[in-house]
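Suppose you are handed a protein chain with no further information: no name, no annotation, nothing but its sequence. What can you learn? This example shows the usual starting point.
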Amino acid sequence: MNLIPALDLFPLLASVLVLVGCTLLGNFLVLRRQSLMGDALSHTVLPGVVGAYLVFGSRDPLGLFLGALVAGLLTVISIEALRRYGRVESNTAMGVVFSIAFAIGVILIRVGHTDHVDLDPNCVLYGQLELLVWFDAPASFWDVGFTDVYHALPSSIWSLLIMVTLSALFVVICFKELRLVSFDPGLARTLGFSSSAINMVLMLLVSVATVASFEAVGSVLVIAALLVPASTARLFTDRLKSQILVSVLVALGSAILGYLLSTWIPLLWQGESLKASGTITVVSGVVFAGSLLFSPRHGYLVQRARTRQLADQVAIEDVVVLLYKSHETAATFPWSTIDPRILALASKRGLLQSPAAGQYLLSDAGRTVALEVQARRARWLTYLVTEVGLAPDHAPETAEHLEHLGDDLLQKSTGTSSDPSQPRGECP
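A reasonable first move is to predict its three-dimensional structure. Written in structure tokens, the prediction is:
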């Protein structure tokens, strides 16, 4: 029984580690509106890598990692200094710093005569996932726990494992502080929490995540991993813990499905091999687009359906009230101006009886709804005149719009409750 082939296992493992580790930190970048920071750090890796090569004279992974990490830290410090002392907006500061840093990296390549060094643009953009091979992998499953070959693991895997561990520990240990700083920095300062210290640690770990992920997946997937799963999760929930959980699940699914598609598509259609990082990014984008349309809380199509449903409810209540008033005053009902679809919906809900001589009749349920709507209008009218201070001749029009909102908003506005178990003046 052979273990999963190393050629497939470690690119997949690296993809999962990159997306999970970056997503944990990306949630707080999205909440703090610092999404561009990931883009900035991914570009500043270049001068750090080139500078490390010039200093150490070799492509030792540790040296390159340290150089890229120093460049990331200098980027964070520069952006913070520009934002704080230069009166520059955060996004503007990020754009200025990472564009200048990337240009410095390009100049260093020329000045340092490193043109002969392998800095493949495709590798910079998409990484080298496919080259993560564990040549000394255990021959069988039973050898995993007893083999002495773990020192031969690709260095990228070790870097990613350390990055994920640090990110997870930071989120777990500092969850309360991160939540407070992300949602209410002013309250955090009042309570004695240092927003700048939390932000600096967060940016430090983002730098570590960016540098650790860059070699394996390149700049494209690093940016996507920091932003897309977290942004997707925001469409499903407004609770931070749930958002983190959903974002991690989205990251896992995107990494696994994207890598499998990059392997299967060339086999099925006998085409050229696909970059796994590119495929994973596309899958993440498709998931985000689907969530943007169909998420139950903030999906565009779901919101459209809710708006349509609310508009229908308002139209039905208006028709029922108008029909009730016409019966009470013996006035002529303007049937020709009413949408037949609204009449059909009201009839389907049991508010109208079958038409007699081409005209619908108000049912008992419809009469009850009409009385409830009128009672809500009267309560809103009283509130607008007595509490808000609207003129009596202006209040009826506003009350007519508010009557469809129900009593919940009115109870919150007045501080009263229809629940007898609730003290007077308090909302449930």
